[in-house]
Design a protein that fits this description.
4-stranded mixed β-sheet; about 55% helix; globular; alpha+beta
Length: about 200
Amino acid sequence: MPGRELEFWFDFASTYSYVSARRIDSIAAPSGIRVRWMPFLLGPVFASQGWDTSPFNVYPVKGRYMWRDIERLCARHAIEFKRPEMFPQFALLATRVATAAAAEPWLQSFCMWMFHAEYVRGMDITGPEAVTNTLERLGLDAEGWISRAQSTEIKQALKDRVAQAQERGIFGAPTFITADGEMFWGDDRLEQAIEWQLKRR
């Protein structure tokens, strides 16, 4: 039911998206809310604001705070975390695969394993190896899905999703959008987004 759906917009490069990805099911499911996973790319969004990298790199003081904050959050929620050597990671292929898999029942599992590779194992997920390993782990045709992800159709679908994010005023990740169009930004607004959804469904 549309009134029971919450959109979860995220980028694999986003540390706070990782925390939300690990938490969202345990909060939404008991309330009967279905989460719609919406992978997209923050890079073009940041570029439109004049940044060529994450604001956490643009402003080092803010970046240092973010890493410590993530450590605290993960400890608080008993979430495994290992800081990756590369940040941010432009996981274009992984995001294209996730876009291609929008209607697949394994989309969430794929995204979770990609986050696991990046923020638990500290791996580089920008290349085909991590994506291939994740698809194979799920028992899927890795070559076939990677080929589909690189098709003109899927490339355009991802561009369209980024454009949609910008049109809807999304400027960071994670962002949660309720069935009535209310937007909540940041992992610290996840519970509030759920509460808002419950009151208006």
